[in-house]
Design a protein that fits this description.
Layout (H helix, E strand, L loop, with lengths): L4 H5 L11 H8 L12 H14 L6 H10 L1 H8 L5 H27 L4 H14 L6 H16 L2 H26 L6 H11 L6 H6 L7 H4 L2 H29 L5 H9 L3 H26 L5 H21 L16
Helix pairs in contact: 2-15, 3-5, 3-6, 5-6, 5-16, 6-8, 6-9, 7-8, 7-9, 9-10, 10-14, 13-15, 13-16, 14-15
């Protein structure tokens, strides 16, 4: 699929449509943040390919095809349009790693549950104790951890490792939910989705892109912490809209739109509309809180929150065109 930046930026907003599911999302999703991309995008894409090959992660043709369909450097460029090339490369590498790790953890959890714990334990040991890796995935994570430590302050690197461990633990909850025959309640689905969103590990990289480290009272301000939660939820729920068709065909459970479909026993377009209402209210709360706290923030704090907003914007523009979710453009919006 080839899409120009102009086509991305002209996604319709606020127009009722009876076309595809993607058209329905475009028409009703509230997106106040305009399209942007990083000028180092092509360089980051080349860097991702080189890094994945160096650790043998794309030796499997299926993984290589997944990366081609997912385009992690594009997501990084849309999420982080003003980042310097060095931090953007770390972001792009981490996005690629997380897609590979997440897909593999889901497959292992479904088919060989006994092999999931060693896989997740290796990651935790690398992130918490800097233990030597035992697998190619572990080796790639250890190298990613090294990149973060070299570019970030010790406090930022510690926050990155903590958030990354929470993401790893979330994959275990996902596996338990997938193995349970009972219907998954929407509240539980949202909680697990928050854990496995994989967005919050990138917040310390947003901070590292600023001229200096944020003061503790600014970083841990209750409104700032709430902005981080809203950013992560909106950023991951938006791809849920576009991935719902793919996940439904694959038997996936941890998806906001599919959770609404199960809870309401309705069509996928109707479920998508219910999910959009939640996403829109989340984005509007993010805007309102940002306006409230912005006068109190330092320039670095403003840049940090702008980085959070970038994930909301970037995930939308990436999701609506990436080949990984192309089925959404073919699915009907008519219930």
């Amino acid at each position: 699929m080839s899409t120009t930046h102009e086509e991305l930026a002209s996604a319709p907003q606020g127009v009722t449509t009876s076309g595809s599911l993607r058209d329905l999302i475009d028409a009703h999703l509230y997106m106040p943040f305009p399209f942007q991309t990083n000028r180092h995008a092509a360089e980051a894409a080349t860097g991702v390919d080189t890094w994945l090959r160096a650790w043998g992660l794309t030796d499997d043709p299926a993984v290589a095809a997944m990366i081609t369909a997912t385009r992690p450097a594009r997501l990084a460029a849309y999420n982080s349009p003003s980042m310097d090339a060095d931090i953007l490369q770390i972001v792009a590498n981490q996005i690629a790693y997380q897609f590979i790790f997440d897909d593999w953890a889901e497959e292992v959890g479904r088919n060989w549950p006994g092999r999931l714990l060693p896989m997740l334990t290796e990651s935790v040991e690398i992130l918490r104790d800097c233990r030597p890796p035992r697998t190619p995935l572990g080796a790639a994570l250890a190298d990613l951890h090294r990149q973060v430590r070299e570019r970030c302050t010790p406090a930022q690197a510690a926050r990155w490792a903590w958030n990354s461990r929470e993401y790893v633990h979330g994959l275990l909850y996902e596996a338990v939910a997938q193995a349970d025959s009972a219907p998954l309640r929407i509240g539980l689905c949202k909680s697990i989705r928050s854990l496995i969103a994989g967005v919050e590990p990138f917040h310390p990289l947003c901070e590292a892109a600023q001229p200096h480290e944020l003061a503790a009272e600014e970083l841990h301000h209750p409104v700032m912490r709430r902005l981080g939660r809203l950013s992560a939820d909106a950023a991951v729920w938006i791809p849920d809209l576009f991935s719902a068709v793919k996940e439904q065909r694959a038997g996936g459970l941890i998806n906001l739109a599919l959770a609404h479909q199960r809870a309401q026993r309705c069509s996928l377009p109707m479920a998508a509309m219910l999910a959009i209402q939640l996403i829109n209210s989340t984005i509007r709360e993010f805007e309102a809180l940002y306006d409230e706290i912005k006068p109190e923030l330092s320039p670095a704090g403003i840049g940090y929150v702008d980085g959070m907003a970038g994930w909301i914007r970037g995930c939308y523009f990436w999701s609506r065109t990436v080949p990984r979710y192309s089925d959404t453009a073919e699915a009907s919006a008519i219930p």
